[in-house]
């Protein structure tokens, strides 16, 4: 009789496994509920279609995690430049010959098999792996050498291409890089100058967005979208109701949930939110499971980051330390951004909720990140 225990080995931190599996199981319930209206519109009322599809995605992700465990993390050091280079190629592909989904042309469809994915998701792995590599190579006894910034210039064109299609994702990844440089002990004067340059560029961008006529911004990537979302956030009563529709419906969902929520499958706002199963899935969590459910999700994410932080601090290898920290930081910052959007603490962005939002690209990258971290702590 086949001994599965000898064939399937769950390496790494056991608590991290428990938290990730808990997130996956919770997401199945929410995905099933949030895709109900979509199933009636697209699948003739087959409400189990998206649940089954998500189950297959999660099974595939588990296979990916177990496969990653069979490699030593030192290979990720060698592949960092390759992954970053592939990200650049796919982003260029998406820019000039990409597929338009959800009013955004930032998807790539592989010919022959019809597999569609977001190159910006691959870029998350490439950028973090390369940054961890650069920071590790430039470490000295006192601090991180300023040469790390020259190494990281290779990241700039990738971030720029993401910026042209999705400002929020580029800002997220830029923020992760900055935090990694801070943790990596970049000389504080250099770090202060870097922050100053970035703040200056942000001010310049906002000046361009609000001074240049809108007709000239239509060809400048997503700048017009950035402008409308900032205007709505600052003066919601003076902007078009169409611009505030998503956030208004999310607020209603959060308010309806109350303390305990309406119960699984009883969401009303899923019929009104344009994408209740992706960007605004946390609103459905609040509506169906209330404050208790929302806090439970937040606790799971905090626990996830705490575990990853402990794993990172234990590593003697610098590349492993910064890689695990960067991957964990990306997950927690993305989750925090999504929660802030749903609760109207920041302008609307196109950032999904890791592990929960429906879709293959985001889930796969989140699970690859976890797989790499499990690989590191199990090596």
Keywords, separated by commas or semicolons:
single chain, 379 residues, mainly alpha, three-stranded antiparallel sheet, 16 helices, 3 strands, 68% helix, globular
Structure description:
There is one protein chain. The protein is mostly helical. The chain has helices at 4-7, 14-34, 36-42, 49-68, 74-97, 119-137, 147-151, 156-165, 167-183, 188-211, 214-217, 223-234, 245-257, 281-314, 318-342, 360-378; strands at residues 99-101, 104-109, 116-117. A three-stranded antiparallel β-sheet has the order 1-2-3. Helix 5 (74-97) runs antiparallel to helix 6 (119-137), helix 13 crosses helix 14 (281-314) and helix 15 (318-342) runs antiparallel to helix 16. The longest helix is centred in the last third of the chain and has 34 residues, at 281-314. Mean pLDDT is 85; it is low at 1-6.
Q: What sort of overall outline do the alpha carbons produce when their principal axes are compared?
A: globular
Structural class: mainly alpha
**Whole-angstrom Rg:** 21 Å
The description of the largest β-sheet is: 3 strands, antiparallel
Helix content: 55-70%
What's the overall average pLDDT, rounded?
Answer: 85
> How many helices in DSSP terms?
16
**N-to-C series of helices and strands:** HHHHHEEEHHHHHHHHHHH
Compute the separation of the termini in Å. Answer: 29 Å
Low-confidence regions: 1-6
Tell how many strands the DSSP assignment holds. 3
| Strand line-up in the sheet with most strands | 1-2-3
Detail the topology: elements first, then pairings:
Layout: H1 4-7, H2 14-34, H3 36-42, H4 49-68, H5 74-97, E1 99-101, E2 104-109, E3 116-117, H6 119-137, H7 147-151, H8 156-165, H9 167-183, H10 188-211, H11 214-217, H12 223-234, H13 245-257, H14 281-314, H15 318-342, H16 360-378
Antiparallel strand pairs: 1-2, 2-3
Helix pairs in contact: 2-4, 2-14, 4-16, 5-6, 5-8, 6-9, 6-15, 6-16, 8-9, 9-15, 13-14, 14-15, 15-16
